[in-house]
Amino acid sequence: MSITSANSVFMVAVKGLFPAPIKLQGYSTDDAFMADAVVVAETLMGVDGKLSAGYVPNPTVITVTFQADSKSIALFEAVVQAMQAARDTYELSATIAIPGVSRAYACVTGFLTEYKPLPDAKKLLQPVTYKIMFESVTASAI
Q1: Rounded Cα–Cα distance for residues 104 and 96 (Å)
Q2: Could you tell me the residue ranges of all domains in the chain?
Q3: Fewer C-beta within 10 Å: the chain N or C terminus?
């Protein structure tokens, strides 16, 4: 089995705007989507040299990068416009299937937190990014 990301499927739903999941398409050549590292523990070292630790919940940030001509940009532009008009946020959920590693990921309670409003204009229009912060991302086998 290949570990290509070309056959991955990323579906997004937006509560109150797009309740039926929409397949994202038109990813950037070098960066389709990526998750930031998640801190799951904090530690403290006592003056006596004993290390203590505790679990801490933290969100998962996923960055999605699209080519400047991606049709999926319209979805995120609509979310931003709705947020600006309502002066409120919209909850996103997502599922990501990556057949190359036989894994699927359920992303729940997400919010669009950052976006690039337009592509950089160079010789070719450059990719644009969107960051979604999810309460949790859970992996499973497919």
Answers
A1: 6
A2: 9-141
A3: N
